[in-house]
């Protein structure tokens, strides 16, 4: 059943990648593939710090989004093909900028996604604890006598 979820999400991710790559296409530089891969680096790192830790999100959905959608959205083969095409056109400087920029910026976006997800997850947990603690205090205040009540007895 996991394969079905991954496949369905892969259709969406691959279609979106193709559309964005065409929309952002430049004749001189593969900005579309670069942009899509950087977005994917952020999203996968963010996902691994949020949905992957949630007990409320089914594993199939996390696999579908991570492996299916983001896996098909980003693609190493397109990245390498774009670099090879630049080299075959003797655009070595652009190929170097593309390769180094993709890897360096990809790491940067991955770390930003990681820390953003970690922050969001920690904030969510803190909010849940605060709500739980408030509810517990309200229940205790309703059933437990207060100091004032004990003094009047």
Automatic annotation (TrEMBL):
**Reaction(s) catalysed by this chain's protein:** fluoride(in) = fluoride(out)
Q: Which residues form a coiled coil?
A: none
Q: Recite the UniProt keywords alphabetically.
A: Cell membrane, Ion channel, Ion transport, Membrane, Metal-binding, Sodium, Transmembrane, Transmembrane helix, Transport
InterPro entries registered for this protein in UniProt: FluC (IPR003691)
Q: Where in the cell is it found?
A: Cell membrane
Q: Where, by residue number, does the polypeptide cross the bilayer?
A: 29-47, 59-80, 92-116
Keyword Metal-binding: yes or no?
A: yes
Has UniProt tagged this entry with the keyword Metal-binding? yes
**What Pfam families has UniProt attached to this entry?**
CRCB
Residues bound to Na(+) are 71, 74
Q: Name the principal localization, coarsely classed.
A: membrane
| Membrane topology classification | Multi-pass membrane protein
State what inhibits or activates this protein: Na(+) is not transported, but it plays an essential structural role and its presence is essential for fluoride channel function.
* HAMAP family listed in its UniProt record: FluC
What does the function comment of this entry state?
A: Fluoride-specific ion channel. Important for reducing fluoride concentration in the cell, thus reducing its toxicity.
Q: Which family is this sequence assigned to? A: Belongs to the fluoride channel Fluc/FEX (TC 1.A.43) family.
Tell me the protein's name: Fluoride-specific ion channel FluC
Q: Which organism is it from?
A: Agrilactobacillus yilanensis
Instruction: Give the encoding gene's name.
Output: fluC
């Amino acid at each position: 059943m996991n394969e079905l979820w991954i496949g369905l999400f892969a259709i969406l991710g691959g279609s979106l990648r193709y559309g964005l790559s065409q929309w952002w296409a430049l004749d001189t530089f593969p900005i579309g593939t670069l942009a899509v891969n950087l977005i994917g680096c952020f999203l996968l790192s963010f996902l691994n710090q949020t949905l992957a830790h949630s007990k409320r999100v089914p594993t199939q959905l996390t696999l579908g989004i991570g492996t299916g959608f983001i896996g098909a959205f980003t693609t190493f083969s397109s990245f390498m093909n774009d670099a090879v095409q630049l080299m075959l056109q003797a655009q070595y400087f652009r190929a170097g900028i593309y390769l180094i920029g993709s890897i360096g910026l990809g790491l940067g976006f991955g770390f930003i996604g990681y820390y953003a997800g970690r922050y969001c997850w920690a904030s969510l947990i803190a909010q849940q604890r605060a709500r739980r603690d408030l509810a517990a205090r309200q229940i205790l205040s309703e059933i437990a006598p207060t100091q004032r009540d004990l003094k009047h007895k």
